[in-house]
Write a structure and sequence with these properties.
This protein has 395 residues and is mainly α. The protein folds into 3 domains: 9-130, Serine Threonine Protein Phosphatase 5, Tetratricopeptide repeat; 136-238 and 246-290, no CATH class; 337-367, no CATH class. Helices cover 52% and strands 1% of the residues. A two-stranded antiparallel ribbon has the order 1-2. α5 (80-87) runs parallel beside α7 (113-119). The longest helix is centred in the middle third of the chain and has 26 residues, at 212-237. The chain is globular and about 75 Å long. The structure holds zinc ion (2 copies). One zinc ion (ZN) is lined by residues 326, 328-329, 331, 334, 346-347, 351.
Length: 395
């Protein structure tokens, strides 16, 4: 326990400003050169209070002012990230992570921030924390290693690639969209695929810190990039007149059209096959995660492969049955509906455009009131055993 230290009046005001969400007052106080790492009677720092309050602006202010993101004298060993996880504010978690918050610190009952967030049902925070990768892990590949003559990754791709590897919605259509949305990625597919393979390998070689989930995620992303490369090669090598239709489409359209093609019983057959193949090609067959995914797919009533992959990477969500998702890319709470049938939802015009090839027939039937289920994948799954869920939380 730390000895009682009397706080000055301005120091007391700092805690007051935070509890009242008064960013302006806090800013004024901090400019008086007050140490941002003071503690109150419970040994909590201003940053920890702000994280628990879930106020992103104040948290950022304190970080900019030199607040120690991993400071922990709290009697139960909570860090600011533990408090942010409890607050349920994913953007606060993210700000702390970007400032170097450690994810593996446990509190006095042995729980990490991610586990605490899961415990209180803040799955957005769990996803942000579990998918976070320090930027330095990416920057590593922009420097020349060993006998290399040039680095694996051009330095200008760091920002885009960092965002790309941390994406939480891993629906393959979203991954393809992101390849084209994040600046520079689509011009460097081969380099990106190589780096993802190296990163996947590295995660399995961290000894006690081996992270099967991240290793699989990087493999998964590299597998999708590999498919985009193949489609691109096929497209450029296709002879004239052959598949003239396909030649007019861009890669995103071609690939999403395949992914979203509805099969006989409303299942997305191509996507299912593609993702099973991706699991099968994961080189680390001895690991628990791989064995669990395979067991899940081999069960008598197997879930769609996407659900298996998604819960392997993002963990179990639970109680999400009624959440709406984009029919193209699986993004949650999409903003738009098909104006004609109002039965399917999309993020935006682009997502609607990408699905229209398959939706147009169903749309007229749906708009005449004929009920029919559009094939769609719900991101929630309960298939995986408790064992694997624990494993996921632990990572
Ligand atoms: Zn979408
Ligand atoms: Zn429609």
């Amino acid at each position: 326990m730390c000895e009682d230290k009397v706080l000055s009046e301005s120091e007391k005001l700092i805690f007051k400003a935070i509890s009242e969400n008064d960013a302006t007052l806090l800013q004024a106080l901090l400019s008086e050169n007050i140490n941002a790492n003071i503690v109150d009677e419970n040994s909590m720092t201003p940053l920890q209070h702000a994280a628990y309050k879930g106020n992103k602006e104040i948290v950022q202010n304190l970080l900019d002012q030199g607040a120690d993101v991993n400071y922990s004298e709290h009697q139960h060993n909570y860090t600011a990230l533990h408090f942010a996880g409890l607050s349920g504010k994913a953007d606060v978690c993210y700000a702390l992570l970007l400032s170097g918050a450690k994810t593996d610190v446990t509190n006095s009952v042995g729980r990490t921030a991610s586990q605490m967030a899961a415990f209180v049902g803040h799955h957005d925070c769990v996803a942000i924390i579990n998918n976070f990768i320090p930027k330095s892990d990416i920057e590593y590949y922009t420097t020349v290693q060993g006998s290399q003559t040039s680095p694996y990754l051009p330095i200008f791709l760091v920002e885009s690639f960092h965002k790309f590897v941390m994406q939480i919605n891993i629906h393959p259509a979203k991954v393809v969209l992101n390849v084209h949305n994040f600046v520079g990625l689509s011009d460097h597919l081969t380099e990106i695929k190589k780096v993802l393979e190296l990163m996947s390998e590295k995660e399995m070689k961290r000894g006690s810190e081996t992270n099967e989930v991240m290793s699989f995620k990087f493999h998964y992303l590299s597998y999708i990039i590999g498919e985009i490369i193949k489609i691109r090669q096929r497209q450029t090598s296709t002879k004239k007149d052959e598949k003239e239709d396909e030649k007019k489409l861009d890669i995103t359209e071609l690939f999403t059209r395949k992914l979203l093609k509805p099969g006989k019983d409303g299942q997305l057959e191509f996507m299912d096959r593609f993702l099973k193949e991706c699991i099968r090609e994961f080189p680390h067959r001895e690991c628990t995660l791989f064995r669990q995914m395979v067991a899940s797919l081999a069960s008598t009533d197997p879930p769609p492969a996407f659900n298996v992959v998604n819960s392997a990477i993002n963990g179990q969500r639970g109680f999400m049955d009624n959440i709406s998702i984009c029919n193209t890319c699986g993004e949650e709470k999409p903003a738009k509906k098909c104006s004609k049938c109002k039965a399917v939802e999309y993020c935006d015009r682009n997502c609607q455009r990408l699905h229209w090839h398959w939706h147009k027939k169903a749309c007229s039937r749906l708009s005449q009131g004929i009920v029919e289920n559009e094939p769609q994948i719900k991101p929630n799954v309960n298939e995986l055993s408790t064992e694997i869920q624990n494993l996921l939380v632990n990572n």
